[in-house]
Amino acid sequence: MLVQDFLQNSAERFPDKAALVCDGQRLTYAEVEARANRLAHALIAHGVQRGDRVAIYLPNSVEAVVAIFGILKAGGTFVVVNSTTKRDKLTYILKNCRATTLFTSGRNASLAAKVHAAVPSLKFTVLSGKRATTAAGDGFYTFDDLLAAYPANRPACPTIDQDLACLIYTSGSTGDPKGVVEGHNNVVFASGSIIQYLENIADDIVINVLPLSFDYGLYQLLMVFRFGGTLVLEKSFAYPAAVLKKMEAERVTGFPGVPTIFAILLQTDLSPYDLSSLRYITNTAAALPPSHIMELRDKFPWATLYSMYGLTETKRTLYLPPDQLDKRPGSVGIAIPGTEVWIEDEEGNRVGPGLVGELVIRGSHVMRGYWENPKATAERYRPGPTPGERVLYSGDLFKMDEEGYLYFVARKDDIIKSRGEKVSPKEVENVVYGIEGVVEVAVIGVPDPILGEAIKAFVVLDNVALTEKDILRHCRAHMENFLVPQHVEFRDSLPKTSSGKIKKTGLS
Q: pLDDT tens for residues 145-196?
């Protein structure tokens, strides 16, 4: 199976069913399929060849969805770049993957012209939206003109499942972004495993407020089109009331989010909205604090909550079976179906329950490595149990309970060394989240001449009058002395990555 088969198979099974609801449009599977076919013919006619990287620099939109599948049908490899990415980083990514084509909006025409001139591999650019025009110069086309000029039949495609489906660039908080290489076989396996444990069916209607440049957002599209559901695609969660109204109107059954979205949701009065259609809620990107899990359960007692862990290098890694949520609210679960995980110490020995070590991941969801970066690939992707196999060393520290359920401890490079002790920021954050009125918390280590590193907590409150003394009193009552922060700073908000994660590199 190839990734474009997700759309093609659903278009054959459910041609007249709503596949995509976005920007006031409601497209059936047959309509999305026809547009993607037209675009594929256009790309082929303009020189896109098997394996060429084609970049999509668009917000969540109909055009972005059609571009993803049109590129695949043309035999290309798609690269979705967050639409808020600045010019220098965009240019770096396009140069790094040697993109041959760029899709962007008409309002970015002048930016696209500058990028086009700076990236030698770019052959042409496609502009979409109301301001799309070919006036930017040679090599510029409009999305609508390309669709109108080519037929809707399915083009022949030489791709096999060993070919590349996409590159997903990591955020690059510690350096230049790296492109994670995903083959068709990787995407097919990962999406199938997740669909299996979420028990998705064709009747599911999933809302996605996460950017398609974020693998968690991208896979909502890919999975829905695979099982033949309906995707309600929103640009963001910037206007929660509008999203909640949309969920009510569309009778949404699946709501994927990240902790920052759920922090907002927990502060929102949901009484004006009928969300009774909601069947499940999923969280990943960062672990939900146990206190937030319990609050979500209270707000949505009729919905199943899935707490999960993943990283771009494997898509999804762990999930907590919902029947374990009350028993182990701090756990992110067990390996997803068809995969295997274990924990290793610094000497490479597998460790048992209660001991902290690095999570190692094995399975067909382990991606191919980093695009043309053999050094970084060798550091994380190492030989596995069978000849020629590679497993992923996650860079994340975990521990396991007696029944084999896993608990995130910290990023290896996030561990705070204070008073000679190793401190997990997550452990401190979970305690602070237990204080009523705390919305967001980020804990880091800051240089200290006596302690080595002092523990500092950044806290966002929800219209409550808490002081530093209140925070510290609660911490002293709930954890060991060496875990109690030395500093507390209140903020109106915390810096975020484009995918909604709290960005600690912006704190000091």
A: 999 999 999 999 999 999 999 999 986 444 678 999 999 999 999 999 999 9
CB 488 within 8 A of CB 470: no
Share of the chain above pLDDT 90, in %: 71
Residue among 203, 214, 220, 212 at smallest CA distance from 281:
220
Q: CB burial class (10 A; 0-12, 13-18, 19+) of residue 271?
A: exposed
380-395 burial by CB neighbour count: b if 16+ within 10 A, else e? Answer: bbeebeeeeebbbbbe
**Beta-bridge partner residues of 206:** 231, 254
Helices (H), 46-174: 62-73, 87-97, 109-118, 143-149
Q: Could you tell me the two tokens for 325?
A: 């949520």
Q: Smallest Cα–Cα separation from 173: which of 485, 407, 438, 395? A: 395
Q: State both tokens at 422.
A: 């190793």
The structural domains of the chain, ordered by start, are 4-184 (3.40.50.980), 237-410 (3.40.50.12780), 415-506 (3.30.300.30)
Contact yes or no for 260/283 (Cβ under 8 A): no
| Distance separating alpha carbons of residues 283 and 372, to the nearest angstrom | 31
3-state helix, strand, coil in the chain (%, to 5): 35, 25, 40
Q: Tell me how far the alpha carbon of residue 70 is from its chain's centroid.
A: 22
> What's the CA dihedral at 443, 484, 396, 316 to 10 degrees?
-70
